[in-house]
Structure formats: C-alpha cells, structure tokens
Amino acid sequence: MADNPASASDPWRLVVELPSERGSNRLVTDPLLAQLGGCGWPEADVFAIHLAVEEAITNAIVHGNMLDPDKKVRVSCEVSPDRVLVSIVDEGSGFDPASVPDCTADDRLEAPGGRGVMLMRSFMTRIAYNAKGNAVELEKRRA
Amino acid sequence: MPTHKRIDVAKVGDVTVVKFVDRKILDEAGIQELGAELFALIEQDNRRSIVLNFDNVDFLSSAALGKLITLDRKVKSSQGRLKMSNIRPEILEVFQITKLNKVFDIRGEEAEAISAF
User: Domain containing B38: what range?
Assistant: First the structure.
C-alpha cells in the first residue's frame, strides 16, 4: 500500500522494464492492484483493469517479444482515484489488431485462443495501439 | 485416487464436483497443471458427469479459458456432460463477452447444477 494515496492532481506512477519471462507480469500487477485498492476503486473495475493489464503484458511477452531474454517489455502506469492509464511497449515486430479473428464468430467460438484483445476492449474505457502494433495504451475511467 | 494440486474433487452421487484450489488462475505453469488435472478426470478416471464449482475463483485469464474450452470438448466427445456453477459476476461477464456462455452449460448454485444432470 502506498504511503501517500494518489490524487487526481498527483497520480501514483510506476515505470518498469519487465524481462520477457512468463510471470514477470506480477512486477506490475501486484503494486498496481494494491494501489487500486488504496484509491478505493470498485471491485468490478479492479477486476477489469487487472484482466486487461494481464492480457496485454502476456501478449507483449509471449507474442511480441516471443520470450526472447534479450528483449524487454516497458510498462508505465498512472493511477488516480478516477482514471487509470497503462502503457505497454514490447520490442517485437508488432501486429495488426484488426487481423485477430473474431473469437465470437460461430466457427471460432471453441478456438482455444484469441480472446485477450477482445476482453481488453470490452473491459477498458479505451485501448489504442500504435501504428506498428508493438505498443498499447489502456485507459479506464471511473464510472 | 490421484493427488491433485490445482483442484479438489468430490463425488455427489454420480456427479463429480470439482473446486479450484487457486483463487487467481493466471500463471502459465499453474494453468498447464490445472488443464492436465482436469483432462485426467475424463481421460484416466472416466468421469462423465462433472460440475466445475467456481466458488473459490476470483480471477481467471484468457489462457485459462482455453483449458475450459478444451475440457468441454473432451467431455462432449466422450458423451459426458459438464456444467459450471457459482461463477462470480465479473467472470460471468468474461464468458458473455466471449460468448462462451453459449458453449458452456452455466448454472447458478452447485445444487442446481447437480440436479440438472
């Protein structure tokens, strides 16, 4: 828990470079979740933010950097009582988010993967990829 | 009886009731173990009527969804039936967004799921 709770004018910030290893997500999600709790974010929003950040970092590590130990994932977070902003950048070649098949199409409903981006879009207020497709920004505004 | 690390398994009549040990199902190694333990219920123990009780589960990632989909397919292809119960609203929303609520047989409480076999 942070000593000084974040405020709208003085948000809590975290900038971290993650190794491209499964499980390094927690270097972001553990302090982020503690901060969201400290700022009084509702449980449903905490779930939504956690899920979106988890999926985005996993995509960056596994699909972006392809678990390459020479590559890092740079994550920056900004948390205030009414807004959360998380930016995730990998060193991969990027991808076109529009090319991800619709996992809710009848013939893809039972496909084992491909749901992360859709969940991020649904649970966050805004998500935006850069043109290259190796950086994503996630924003959640408190209802 | 095999030892499980990721699930607790009980029998209620002919129905196998599975509860999850982890409140958060998200790390890759844990999800692989979970998948192996769930699939073994079908492939080794020949269970055919299974309820997954999510009472203990606060969070799951999309990688975990993949295991649930594979389990559902294995159960169906072995003429078994799988039902899910006690799902918290946020996880239910995950199933609704991904339309997995059309694939899975989702019930309210465990007793309701058991009596639906």
Answer: 7-115
B window 47-106, beta carbon within 8 A of A? 58-59, 61-63, 65-66, 69-70, 72-73, 89-90, 94, 97-100, 102-103
- For the record, the structure tokens of A74 come out as 């740079």
* DSSP symbol at B106: E
ipTM of the complex, rounded to two decimals: 0.91
Contacts of B58 in chain A (CB under 8 A): 47
Residue % of chain B over a pLDDT of 70? 98
CATH placement of domain A12-141: 3.30.565.10
Structural contact between residues B35 and B41, judged by C-beta atoms closer than 8 angstroms:
no
How many Cα neighbours within 13 Å face the side chain of A122? 19
What is the count of structural domains for chain B? Answer: 1
pLDDT tens for A73-115 read 999 999 999 999 999 999 999 999 888 888 898 888 888 778 9
